[in-house]
Amino acid sequence: MKKKKTPEVWICGIVSVFAFLLLWQIGCSVSELGKMIPGPITVTGAVLKSMVSRSIGGHTLWIHIGYSLLRVLTGYILGSALGVVVGLAMGWNRVVEAFITPIFRLIRPIPPIAWIPISILWFGLGFQAKVFLIVLASFCNVTLNAWAGAKSVDPQLIGAAKMLGASKSQIFFTIVMPASVPQIFAGLQVAMSSSWTTVLAAEMVRSTEGLGWMIVTGQTNLDMTQILVGIVAIGVVGFILVAVMRRMEDILCRWNKGKR
Amino acid sequence: MQMEQRKKIEPVIQCDNLCKTFRTPGGDQEVIRNISLDVQENEFVVLFGPGQCGKTTFLNMIAGLEKSTAGTVTVSRKCVTEPGPQRGVVFQSVALFPWLTTMGNVEYGLKMAGVKKEERQKRAQKYIDLVGLQGFENTFPVELSGGMKQRVGIARAYCIEPEVMLLDEPFGALDAQTRYLMQEELERIWQTAKRTVVFVTNNIEEALYLADRIIVLSPCPCSIVKEFEIDLPRPRNYTSQEFLHLRKEIDATINSST
User: Fold this and answer.
1) Is the pLDDT of residue B24 over 90?
2) Can you state the angle between helices A177-205 and A116-123, rounded to 10 degrees?
3) Which of A164, A168, A176, A255 has the most B C-beta neighbours within 10 Å, making it the best mutation to test the interface with B?
4) What residues in B contact A178, CB-CB < 8 Å?
């Protein structure tokens, strides 16, 4: 059973975050390494300012987050949908599995960012090239998990469904698919972090906006505050994305609680 | 007298010289040797034998979940080749669909058969009530106790209105108290909605409480040692003279066979 967070846990969490911010602030004034970067107060000020004024490359922070999110979500949804279909097909049908497994095993270890040059060659510098990379990043993780999920369905459940009169296709849609959902969700979570890292890398290589671009231009202009604003935004957005995924899983996999 | 009449009718389940050998890397393992068994309509037959003796394998062959190496099973003249709604199975591990509620599990078979929602929920409700689970229609299996899960399993198998019910040590995982209760419940359910039943157990009290006929099986390879017709009046008393006497007699049979 998933435990509810006690007040103690909340207090510990808040204390730890404040301790980190305090150490950062102190570090900025006493250590040599710290003196090169702005402290949390400066960064917070810059974050707030960039939310309302077009202070970064002619855009507000929201616009940069929006660009990165749009790229991630488009690629993520396409890649995950494809991954679920291919993974379930591999787990359900031996012929499909036999054909796809070798190619999949070869493509999977290639990190998505290795495709950056090819993506630029094929799709140019814009939206499509980034989406292509994120499709790759999410596809492999989701496929792997959907495949494993469909393969590991309890054979007794399939026996029970047959006993109750289910046809082969009914077994796929009413047993194999729901039984694979927790595994697919595990894949979706990994795919989300992987997509998020990939979009930032892609933006750092070639882009005219987005959080990855913010960091790289900060480096070029020696603007430490802009770099840190970008890093903070990446952390916070990533945190929110994962939290949303967890919440969705809690709702969709209510029946599976206690097994996680 | 009643038994005499029954035997004139053609049996519902006919097992003819069933054999099962598992091929393992370490060589062939004979699990079942030449079992022939007829079960009459509405008869409650208990397969009684020690653990791991192959009685579950035997039941699975009647269910169609496992193929025999030799011999045939026919149920109502149809040769059994795969599992189907003609034979409802209650599994030892329950095997409920964890993502479906009690109602979802019980109505599953009707849903697959294309029965309209209103109609199938009405029929499922009848069996949910029969097993005493009213109020738990929207509960997921993870939130139910062991005994309640098995009730759902029984209702699910009953709901497809099979010709025969096959129960594989359904109460094996329950504590003693719940087990007695479930035995009484099953007896009541069976009296209310009569079916031809094959019930597997390794518990002699359970066998005597429920059976019209007990088939005593020997351990590996599994074969029939002896049959006992039990015509004690129902519901039975676990501590009556006749009950204890039969219990001794069956005990003696097992001891002499091993």
Assistant:
1) no
2) 80
3) A164
4) 97, 99
Q: Band of the pLDDT at B58, cuts 50, 70, 90? A: very high
ipTM of the complex: 0.88
A260: pLDDT confidence band, cut at 50, 70 and 90?
Answer: very low
A255 vs B89, B99, B112: nearest CB: B99
In this predicted structure, the answer to whether residue B20 has a pLDDT above a threshold of 50 is yes
Show the DSSP H helices in chain A as ranges: 7-30, 32-35, 40-52, 61-92, 94-107, 116-123, 127-151, 155-163, 168-171, 177-205, 211-220, 224-252
B127 — contact with chain A (CB < 8 Å)?
A: no
Nearest to B85 among A154, A165, A178 (CB): A165
- What's the average model confidence in pLDDT over B17-42? 90
Tokens of A131: 């989406």
Tell me how close the Cα of B177 comes to any Cα of chain A, in angstroms: 26
Chain B residues whose beta carbon lies within 8 Å of the beta carbon of residue A174: 108, 112
**Residues of chain A contacting B142 with CB distance shorter than 8 Å:** 255-259
Q: What is the pLDDT of residues B27-39, one digit of tens each?
A: 888 899 999 999 9
Whole-model pTM over 0.90: no
> For residue A151, is pLDDT > 90?
yes
User: Which residues, 6 or more positions from B128, have their beta carbon under 8 angstroms from its beta carbon?
Assistant: B102, B103, B106, B134, B136, B137, B155
If you average pLDDT over residues B58-87, what whole number do you get? 93
The four Cα atoms B24, B27, B33, B38 give a dihedral, to 10 degrees, of 20
Interface test with A, best of B62, B81, B112, B168 (most A CBs within 10 A): B112
Start-end of H helices in B27-101: 55-63
**Sign of the torsion angle spanned by Cα atoms B33, B37, B42, B43:** negative
**Domains assigned to chain A:** 58-259 (1.10.3720.10)
Of A137, A243, A239, A246, nearest to A186 by C-alpha is A246
